[in-house]
Amino acid sequence: MSRLDDLISFYGLLEALESKQGGRRNLALCNGRMRWPDQGVYFFFEKEECRSDSGSGLRVVRVGTHALTATSKTSLWKRLSQHRGNANGQRGNHRGSIFRLLVGKALQTRDSETISSWGISESASAAATKLGVHHEHLKAQEMEAERAVSRAIGEMPFIWLGINDSPGPDSLRGYVERNAIALLSNAGRTPLDPPSKSWLGQYCDRKKVRESGLWNNRHIDDTYDPDFLDKFSSLI
Predict the structure, then answer these.
(1) Looking at the chain, which terminus has fewer C-beta neighbours within 10 angstroms, N or C?
(2) Of 227, 228, 139, 134, nearest to 175 (Cα)?
(3) How far, in Å, CA of 48 to CA of 17, rounded?
(4) Pairwise CA distance, residues 74 & 166, whole Å
């Protein structure tokens, strides 16, 4: 089987998953009162980003999971809410979400804006100290950019697959995430379902994002195991 054949099979499985869930959701309209599995893997799509080789419809632009360390207590919804920001879209924390960090940087580059504190340190207070500015000043400087990120991610349709296994690097969720990213990634390969020239990720400062066509920074250079599709199918 070729990579194209495996991509076609993969999207067929996603369509089956989507049908079982009653359609895709938009993160901006989701909340913690919905019935979420404790653990899972999620798949984001993006409007105007269409498949061109494996079939029709939107292409996956990010795959993710959570709790890949043995001590982590993060749930699926907790991770999704970190990507979304707060419910009214007025706040968010790009330091707690690599997805937000990448999208925010791309938005700033596209719009010819520069926020010097973006991505600096692991907390806003640490960034303020490092840059020698007041914490509240830094938060105000970043606020509109965080809002823009919330709008962008909140509009992306997504689906998820519940996999309630124990946290840890050898989890089944990690296996599915890793192989799905490796299959979808165009880094170092003949492009399949390549991103459009206007895709926001083209403005990202991370070469891995631009080359893979995904809002992912890990596993884009990995080799996928074709057998993962059988396991993925059984989970669905």
Answers:
(1) N
(2) 228
(3) 21
(4) 11
List the chain domain ranges. Answer: 1-229
pLDDT at position 124 over 80: yes
pLDDT at 89: 67
**pLDDT tens per residue, range 137-155:** 999 999 999 999 999 999 9
CA–CA distances in Å: residue 10 to residues 14, 95, 167, 230: 6, 31, 25, 10
DSSP-assigned letters across all residues of 31-54: -TTS---SSEEEEEEEEEEE-SSS
Instruction: Extract the tokens encoding 221.
Output: 């250079």
> Which of these, 39, 55, 22, 83, lies nearest to 235 by C-alpha position?
39
Mapped onto helix, strand or coil, the DSSP state of residue 60 is strand
Cα–Cα nearest to 84, from 73, 72, 96, 69: 96
Distance between CA 98 and CA 50 in Å, rounded? 23
E strands present in the chain: 25-26, 40-50, 58-64, 157-162
* Residue located via tokens 């993969």: 10
In the sheet that holds 157-162, the strands lie side by side as: 25-26, 157-162, 40-50, 58-64
Q: Maximum Cα–Cα distance for the chain, whole Å?
A: 57
* Between 90 and 6, the higher pLDDT residue: 6
> What distance in Å separates the CA atoms of residue 137 and residue 64, rounded to the nearest whole number?
32
Residues in the chain: 236
Above 80 in pLDDT, residue 87? no
pLDDT category at 67 given cuts 50, 70, 90 is: confident
d(CA 101, CA 19): 31
